[in-house]
UniProtKB/TrEMBL annotation:
One of its GO terms (molecular function) is metallocarboxypeptidase activity. Residues 174-416 form the Peptidase M14 domain. Its cofactor is Zn(2+). It comes from Flagellimonas meridianipacifica. Residues 1-20 form the signal peptide. The active site is at E392 (proton donor/acceptor). Keywords: Carboxypeptidase, Hydrolase, Protease, Signal. The keyword Cell division does not apply. Belongs to the peptidase M14 family. It holds the Pfam family Peptidase_M14. This is Zinc carboxypeptidase. One of its GO terms (biological process) is proteolysis.
């Protein structure tokens, strides 16, 4: 008996110290055409099942539900399709459901061909406050063997939902549409040192909003963007806290704003977000492949803005950051042997962030292939000399940690940049 206990103890220790499987990052980015392509529009309305008194709806901004059939009295199968193909496995879904009487339904989410289920269901009663579906009410089918990526995903899932006369919202991640982003922007821009402006229009004529934090004539500049890819909500949440920290009332932030102005485009792809796209803009294109050719209005607007600012102020961008989400937290940096306007900044920054967050070991994947500049990071670095990176948050990273990491990251970045500027 004692031997067995010791054995189990050692087994436990081995498990504790075993090298955890780690996300190896994306393979090198291939150039893809970014000329406008057709996208499939989603039929919008209510899907009513009168016999059972149950209604599903995709009639709201940010929704995605492409079809639904009733299998039996309590089971419904939903089809989720992308805006066009080929496309990454980031199948967004969001719908509402309600019933005449309190009841329980099984909702099976299915996808086409290589599409698989990725985002763990979030539930809400008001579209604002979200919680995770109870895991005992969630079942995955034909799950892949791999630890990360599409090969790790199930082919379909079943959710057991309690529904009634009140609307239940079901979504792949918390809903943050252009309306939510505008509200956040409105709120922040009540501060006297923040102005909001429009730097362009999306393909479907939505405004591309920008926040200027600090003096708009300042010569020392930072560029912050997020949400080129609609479902990447955790990256967006990190961006929010990062920006709020730079806009805060701390002494550090005040000093920082005296020396540097931060420009923020929080929602790069408003059409994609509001249409519930998996990845592309309304031109059917992955915007983060369009920073060399600038075929799309969203990327072109940021390019024109940044180049206009450099001309106007005769200054430069020292730092550029693009927030995304992926399988796990990761930083795609520029190889430290390539020097921009503040050499060593990103390396020092990430090592100080690591030191500050106990138990956190950042996953850093540098690249020295900066041309062509298909992605925003390369454009920021090559055309502006901005020390640049992609800041990726895992789909399932706990939201408290997302905030904490973003706050600490912004604080340390401000300290380091202040030390380095004359
Ligand atoms: Zn992305």
């Amino acid at each position: 008996m004692k031997k067995k206990v010791l054995f189990l103890y050692l087994l436990g220790l081995a498990a504790t110290y075993a090298q955890e499987q780690r996300f190896q990052g994306q393979p090198p980015i291939a150039a893809v055409p970014t000329k406008t392509r057709a996208v499939q529009k989603q039929w919008k309305g209510n899907f009513k099942f009168a016999r059972n008194g149950i209604t599903f709806s995709n009639d709201f901004v940010g929704s995605r539900l492409n079809g639904i059939v009733q299998n039996n009295d309590s089971t419904y199968t939903v089809l989720i399709t992308p805006e066009n193909t080929p496309i990454n496995t980031s199948p967004w879904y969001a719908f509402k459901v309600w019933a005449n009487n309190r009841t329980q339904v099984n909702v099976v989410l299915t996808y086409q061909e290589s599409g698989k289920h990725r985002y763990f269901p979030k539930l809400s009663k008001d579209g604002v406050n979200w919680s995770l579906l109870d895991s005992t009410r969630y079942k995955e089918y034909d799950k892949g063997e791999r630890a990360f990526g599409p090969g790790s995903l199930p082919v379909k899932v079943n959710m057991k939902l309690e529904i009634g006369t009140d609307t239940l919202w079901v979504s792949g991640q918390e809903l943050h549409t252009s309306h939510h982003v505008s509200r956040w922007v409105e709120d922040l821009s009540t501060k006297p040192f923040i102005t909001k402006k429009k730097i362009g229009k999306s393909r479907e004529n939505r405004d591309l909003g920008l926040l200027a934090i600090g003096d708009e004539n300042a010569r020392n500049m930072l560029m912050v963007i997020s949400r080129q890819h609609p479902p990447e909500v955790t990256g967006y949440l990190a961006m929010k806290t990062f920006v709020e920290t730079i806009a805060s009332d701390t002494k550090l932030a005040k000093n920082f704003r005296k020396k540097f102005t931060t420009y923020v485009v929080p929602l790069m792809n408003p059409d994609g977000v509001d249409n519930g796209h998996w990845r592309h803009n309304a031109g059917g294109v992955d915007l983060n492949r369009d920073w060399a050719n600038f075929n799309q209005p969203e990327t072109r607007s940021v390019k024109n803005f940044m180049e206009g600012k450099v001309k106007q102020t005769k200054g430069k961008f020292y730092f550029g950051i693009d927030f995304h989400s992926t399988w796990d937290d990761i930083y795609y940096t520029v190889d430290s042997k390539l020097e921009g306007n503040m050499p060593g900044l990103v390396t020092d920054w990430l090592s100080e962030v690591k030191a500050e967050l106990e138990g956190y070991d950042p996953n850093i994947r540098p690249s020295d292939k900066m041309r062509p500049t298909n992605v925003s990071r390369n454009y920021f670095f090559v055309e502006h000399g901005a020390e640049a990176l992609v800041f990726e948050i895992g789909d399932n990273t706990p939201r408290d940690f997302v905030k904490k990491k973003a706050r600490v990251s912004a604080q340390i970045l401000m300290q380091l940049m202040l030390k380095r500027i004359k």
